[in-house]
Amino acid sequence: MSQDDVITLSQVARKVPGFLTHLPTMLKGLRISKDTDPNKTVGLGWAFEQATRHNPHGPAVLYQEQRYTYTQFNQWANRIAHYFLMQGFAKGDVVAVLMENRPELLAIAIALAKIGVVAALVNTSQRDRVLTHSINLVKPRAVILGDELIQPFTEVHPNLSIDQGAVYWFADQDVQQNPGEAPAGMINLQTAIDRCPLFNPSTTQQIRRKDGLFYVYTSGTTGLPKAAIFTHGRWMKAYGAFGLGTVRFGKHDILYNTLPLYHATAMVVCWGSCIAGSAGIALRRKFSAREFWNDIRKFQATSFGYVGELCRYLMELPADDRDRQHRATKIIGNGLRPGIWKPFKQRFGIEEVLELYASSEGNIGFTNLFNFDNTVGFSPLPYCIVAYDKDTEQPARSPDGFLRTVRPGEAGLLIAEITDKSPFDGYTDAAKNEACILKDVFVKGDRYFNTGDLLRDIGFRHAQFVDRTGDTFRWKGENVSTTEVENIMGVFGQLTDAVVYGVEIPGTNGRAGMAAVTLRDGIHHIDFHMLYEYLRKELPPFAVPLFIRVMKKMETTGTFKYQKVNLKKEGFDPALTGTDALYLCLPGTHVYTELTPEIYNNIIEGHYRF
């Protein structure tokens, strides 16, 4: 760790004058984030109505050439809300939403929030068995589908536990200006709401903190995705702490977002911060490095949402005289690597990097309130960073049976105390909830949420993100469940065992997927073309392993657990993997080829853009 990354008292003191100018707004945000009154009206719908009253004619949502004011967008959401009320939908019902980044998705989110219906934000890259699982898991009363995803949905529709006539369809305006007729058996939601009322439904006033808002899917360490419950109360915490306390947008700000809205970073933190400041959000369907800065200028964005990989792609663009010719000075997100943090700010004229740390299911959040470099920031919530044994992949307990905190400058496992003010909402599956709760941590009877993340204590309640632990790793801004990938590879007829883990590639964020495999009896060679096509069909692109290691026998422990620790250490280095054959999928190709020492050296020297 660089000495520059240590937070000192003098550094904090220098931030105080600027801190004081924003103190009233920050205190308001802190009060909102800490309020636990169970009878108070709260939530996304309530907050959007507040923003509409504050900035009725200001831009709320921008997309391509479309521009919606707060009043227009609120009325659109009201039509949808009233329609579903008339169909008998009520608080506690669940609707699965499968749609890419576009205004319709946000209007649906507000509408369902206003009537207390939980929106299950399905990952749009899911396919086949995984998509079926994610939808059935939350037992939805209906599905709202964007036409752009009709093919993967149609393939799994027969396997879904939903009633006939419970699929609502929105045309894809990118490819058809006239919405036309919905596919057979589906309801055209755009035309169905035409005559619904424009006024705010009274149900908005009946939403309370414990009511469900979203299901956000996370990678499950036991296999298929888990659905994390995101309540209106948790949304208010982000609205207060991030939106009012840290980001502090005004009604003339515009945030440009290319991050997928099925992730909490985009849907909750970025958009929630816009609503908190009555500011606008500009959407793009998917990230494009080539068009990024043109869009920033087109929308006159003052900010944008990021993950570390996005910033790396932007840094790889050729230098341009217009690199600083834009209004964006503040960025919000997570995963910005220390190696490019300061160069990115310098090149593109970024003044504030509002790095944050949070998890969809957890009860802890950090935010870079003081705008220090190379930190996820500060957290006022009760947490500890404790010693972690990488060999056993478990928190290290002292002889007395309790955990111990690490010293400043050391990395350890982040755990967050579960209290009335920092509750753990968890997952739909109670067994999964218990699996990530640590008990008797410092005293008998205490309970902590195990984040599964390694962070470094850098002083004054600030931390740096270091790595993920266990059976999940992060690649391309997405969490990859090793167990899920292992299960899918295990079905491929030519393989007996598949052990999946993440490996570091120099110059990239996170860890790329690697699989160590053994062959079935009688199989002497893998059909790598067939394997790649199978994995691309069954997995989202970010979860397909980049590296394959073919082994004669898999090393296991005495309890028959695979020895991932050694596999991770050896990675894809031919000098460490002995006689095992190594294969990889190079960028821009669609098949696995042999990894030679020459290719390995080129990877290490950064000659490929992964």
Model description:
With 610 residues, this protein is an alpha/beta fold. The protein has 3 domains: 35-361, Rossmann fold (3-Layer(aba) Sandwich); 381-468, Luciferase, Domain 3 (Luciferase, domain 3), CATH 2.30.38; 472-604, GMP Synthetase, Chain A, domain 3 (2-Layer Sandwich). The strands form 6 sheets. An 8-stranded mixed β-sheet has the order 2-1-11-10-12-13-14-15. Strands 7-6-5-3-4-8-9 form a 7-stranded mixed β-sheet, sandwiched between helices.
Question: Tags for this entry?
Answer:
610 residues, alpha/beta, seven-stranded mixed β-sheet, 30% helix, 18 helices, eight-stranded mixed β-sheet, GMP Synthetase, Chain A, domain 3, Rossmann fold, 3 domains
- Could you name the CATH class of the largest domain? Alpha Beta
Proportion of residues in helical segments: 25-40%
Oligomeric form:
single chain
**Largest β sheet strand count, sense and barrel closure:** 8 strands, mixed
The count of domains is 3
- Judging from the principal axes of the Cα atoms, what is the shape? globular
Number of separate helices: 18
Structural class: alpha/beta
Spatial arrangement of strands, main beta sheet: 2-1-11-10-12-13-14-15
Number of strands: 30
CATH 4th-level superfamily of the largest domain: ANL, N-terminal domain
